[in-house]
Amino acid sequence: MAKVAFLGLGVMGYPMARHLASKGHEVTVYNRTAAKAEKWVSENGGRSAATPREAARGQEIVFACVGNDDDLRQVTLGADGAFQGMGKGTIFVDHTTASAEVARELYAAAKDKGFAFIDAPVSGGQAGAENGVLTVMCGGDADVYAKAEPVIMSFARASRLLGAAGSGQLTKMINQICIAGLVQGLAEGVHFGKKAGLDIEAVLDVISKGAAGSWQMENRGKTMNQGKFDFGFAVDWMRKDLSIVLGEARKNGASLPVTALVDQFYADVQKMGGRRWDTSSLIARLDK
Ligand code: NAP
To answer: Which fold has domain 3-163?
Structure first.
């Protein structure tokens, strides 16, 4: 069992930290809004710390899951950041969806100070975190990853090292590219079916068993048809992720015309009041 800290008890971090505690790891939590950390400790045991620096002190592995690049820099490099408290030979595992650039920057900063950094964004959403079945995409050094993997598996169904620092974030970008175009295609299919006067649930039931089937169709097709958009990953988060994706594509020269277009469609959804709607809400701008 490991001595670990978890920084950021949001929708994802709160249950991820709970799975670490339930597997027997000794968990110290930090959350910017301290009341959430106190609630976590009252439910799960362990202890809370007032700053990331204090939380990181004496731990073997420090996990984080905060919002974006700037938040991540704050909880690591800031005056009270975790990097000021970490000991030599320890590991920082970051589950934030962030840029590959910040992952490389923090990998180098950690190496300078004698500890290690793994970028490890996740897929599987709130339900995946609650049920401890996330998919984790990692970048960093193989020997370090081998030590962290058994602890990561406390809240994951699958975890894999994809290459050097930043590779986890690049893989998560591919995940989001694949989702963006697919959700728009599904939205257009459902929208078309409604215009054609078909029974959408019957249509989805049959076509999901063939070549058009997908996780999105299985899990979001029916609710999309019902105009229900409160199933987790929010449009604001998706736009943050797509902005990271499009920024990386400008650097590596990848051509992402559909992803860029879908990003603009999500901007339309935001203007319709859908910032907190889930990503299947692309259909709302077609149906309006
Ligand atoms: P969330 O519920 O908004 O939680 C964000 C957490 O980060 C909160 O604990 C927040 O503290 C903390 N935080 C934010 N900025 C901070 C700062 N500058 N300093 C210290 N703490 C800070 O977000 P979430 O849904 O858990 O998502 C977290 C990350 O996972 C994001 O990068 C997101 O893209 C990614 N992700 C989310 C999902 C999903 O379905 N939600 C799926 C895959 C990946 P406070 O409590 O004080 O606000």
So the answer is: Rossmann fold (3.40.50)
Long-range (24+ apart) CB contacts under 8 A made by 110-113 are 110/83, 110/86, 113/83, 113/86, 113/88
Task: Please state whether the predicted TM-score (pTM) of the whole model is above 0.90.
Answer: yes
pLDDT of 80 > 90? The answer is yes
* The pLDDT value given to residue 231: 75
First to last CA, the chain: 53
CATH H-level, domain 170-287: superfamily: N-(1-d-carboxylethyl)-l-norvaline Dehydrogenase; domain 2 (1.10.1040.10)
13-34: average pLDDT: 98
pLDDT in the model for residue 232: 73
Question: Which residues does ligand 1 sit against, CB inside 6 Å?
Answer: 8-13, 31-33, 36, 65-67, 71, 74-75, 96-97, 122, 125-126, 232-233, 237
